[in-house]
Amino acid sequence: MKLVRFGPPDTERPGIIDNNGQLRDAQSLVDDWHGATLTDECLAQVAAAAATLPLVTDNPHPRLGAPVGTISKFIVIGLNYAAHAAEAGLSPPTDPIIVLASPTAVCGGNDTICLPPNSHKTDWEIELGVVIGRGGRFIAATEALQHVAGYCIANDVSEREYQIERGTQWGKGKSYDTFKPLGPWLVTRDEIPDPQNLNMQLQRNGKICQQSNTQDMIFPVAELISRISEYMTLCAGDVLVTGTPPGVGYGMKPPQFLCAGDQLQLNIDGLGQQENTVAAHVTHK
After folding, report:
1. Whether the Cβ atoms of residue 42 and residue 14 lie closer than 8 Å to each other
2. Phi then psi dihedrals of residue 274, to 5 deg
């Protein structure tokens, strides 16, 4: 099942994309897609009633916001592909690098990415996004995937000057508004039986920059969930982005970074496609 939140920013309504690719309104069953509605029990009820949900006919192709709302934690994993660590000139980690980014950076999968004022080093990072459906602490790796509500495409947009040149707090470079496009939808875990065998690709202005497979992760999804839960309680609705493969602009020679007018296209097997336009700084509320 594909879960979506549709409509203008801050007024999104919960919906699903049915097996025919049609948008259906799920407001009669859930108030939104968040921690309380991403449980196995709730998702099973929605799936059973999916064919009876009303089609959205007034605007069948509205803006799709981030597919999960009210995010308490947005967790970023650094250097989780050995080849990406190498292009950054760093050794692969022996324990997951955990960074917290601000949930205010989250936007819809096809929303515009806005550059910070005077930014010259904003970079792209395609990643597999994981949304927690059942929280916990000290989760066993053998049980970890049962704690997942679903998977989505994520772009862990990062301003490298903020991230690297202004101290060691990576979250500075990953928390600007619009820096975390998610979606276009959240695919429930029953449709992604093996998150460690998904092809992924990012194009910038029609040129392939990143192309890899999630099997190349140093720490697979189940291990990440288990390790993170040693350090903090995971809550339903938390979002985890699992690292990026090689091909980011920072690792190119010479480095390349995003410019206003750039077009990004991101694809991950089974999770759809993101398309973003990059824009110059605008004032956010």
Report:
1. no
2. -105, 145
Amino acid at 219: F
Specify the DSSP element, H or E, that contains 175: none
Is it true that the peptide bond before 254 is cis, omega within 30 degrees of 0? yes
Alpha-carbon Rg for the chain, nearest whole angstrom, is: 18
Question: Which token pair is 280?
Answer: 């110059």
On whether the pTM is more than 0.90, the answer is: yes
CA distance 128 to 130: 7
Distance CA 186, CA 164 (A): 31
Name the range with the highest mean pLDDT among 44-53, 58-67, 276-285.
44-53
- Residues 51-66 as b/e (b if ≥16 CB within 10 A, e otherwise) read eebeebeeeeebbbbb
Distance CA 277, CA 209 (A): 16
Query: Measuring CA to CA, how many Å separate 168 from each of 83, 121, 122, 149, 160?
Result: 21, 16, 17, 32, 11
